């Protein structure tokens, strides 16, 4: 299974998962782990224990074909909704939206900048959501966010063709660290793709064709908890009918790969909006949160988003 994926290059790899965690995630024994490292799975030894990058383990599991690894079970659950009638994705939905911002090793009171939910851009609304006050170390954001869905497929044949060309070019969806996804040329050069990287590249192609387009980040909700924190991004583009559309390119691709009965959902990804996505004000390669304390370490952003009704 090690031959079927691209490992995360050393400069973006963060080896935090112990051998025991790797065995659990991949439902395998120590001999299997030896076979994987022999086949090139990168690791770091600390105090006699080998540690692995979480994306490498996810991708190995997801494409292992074993059917019982944690990533395969998680993605099957994640995309169960995509095989159902899309009506449920178009109705109004309300979320209890909480975000915790942590600036590690920080003891300086400074302002926060947080790319808040911007549901109004696509017909939803946000209640509450006061900007975090200046503080040291950590801050929180809370709001009630309502999302809606609408079938507004791309009408421009040129935008449709560029999207189709991308989907047909065979890039393989992988879990990829957010920092690496901003380097979307590297990701695609490896034959891989992921939500942010795909959106950055497609937005560039839309702009090259003369359209106003931008990759934007958001939150993909109502799927799994912290076990699978899937970074979300899509392309926002002004279509020939003057309306702002979203192209959720990576979800369309991932749904197609994971399950053949997701045609209606895949079509929904090409211009329409659905209620599981909360748009943010952050552009495709930007972080959700910054702390103006001067620390070089990125702010950790943990979202807890629960369905209310
Ligand atoms: Zn700070």
From TrEMBL:
Protein name: Uncharacterized protein
Highest taxon, organism lineage: Bacteria
Organism encoding this protein: Streptomyces decoyicus
């Amino acid at each position: 299974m090690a031959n079927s994926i691209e490992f995360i290059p050393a400069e973006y790899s963060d080896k935090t998962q112990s051998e025991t965690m790797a065995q659990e995630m991949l439902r395998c024994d120590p001999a299997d782990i030896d076979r994987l490292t022999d086949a090139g799975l990168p690791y770091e030894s600390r105090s006699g224990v080998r540690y692995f990058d979480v994306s490498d383990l996810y991708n190995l599991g997801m494409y292992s074909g074993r059917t019982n690894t944690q990533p395969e079970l998680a993605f099957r659950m994640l995309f169960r909704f995509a095989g159902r009638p899309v009506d449920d994705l178009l109705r109004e939905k309300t979320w209890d939206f909480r975000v915790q911002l942590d600036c590690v090793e920080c003891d300086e009171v400074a302002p926060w900048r947080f790319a808040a939910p911007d549901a109004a851009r696509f017909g939803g609304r946000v209640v509450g959501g006061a900007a975090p006050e200046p503080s040291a170390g950590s801050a929180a954001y809370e709001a009630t966010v309502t999302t809606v869905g609408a079938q507004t497929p791309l009408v421009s044949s040129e935008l449709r063709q560029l999207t189709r060309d991308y989907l047909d070019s065979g890039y393989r969806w992988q879990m990829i660290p957010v920092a690496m996804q901003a380097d979307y040329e590297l990701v695609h050069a490896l034959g891989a793709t992921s939500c942010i990287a795909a959106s950055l590249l497609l937005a560039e192609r839309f702009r090259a064709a003369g359209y106003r387009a931008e990759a934007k980040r958001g939150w993909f909700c109502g799927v799994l908890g912290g076990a699978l924190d899937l970074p979300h991004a899509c392309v926002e583009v002004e279509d020939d009918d003057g309306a702002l559309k979203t192209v959720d390119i990576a979800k369309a691709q991932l749904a197609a790969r994971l399950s053949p009965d997701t045609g209606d959902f895949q079509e929904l990804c090409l211009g329409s909006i659905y209620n599981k996505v909360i748009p943010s004000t952050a552009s495709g390669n930007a972080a959700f949160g910054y702390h103006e304390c001067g620390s070089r370490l990125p702010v950790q952003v943990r979202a807890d988003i629960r369905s209310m009704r």
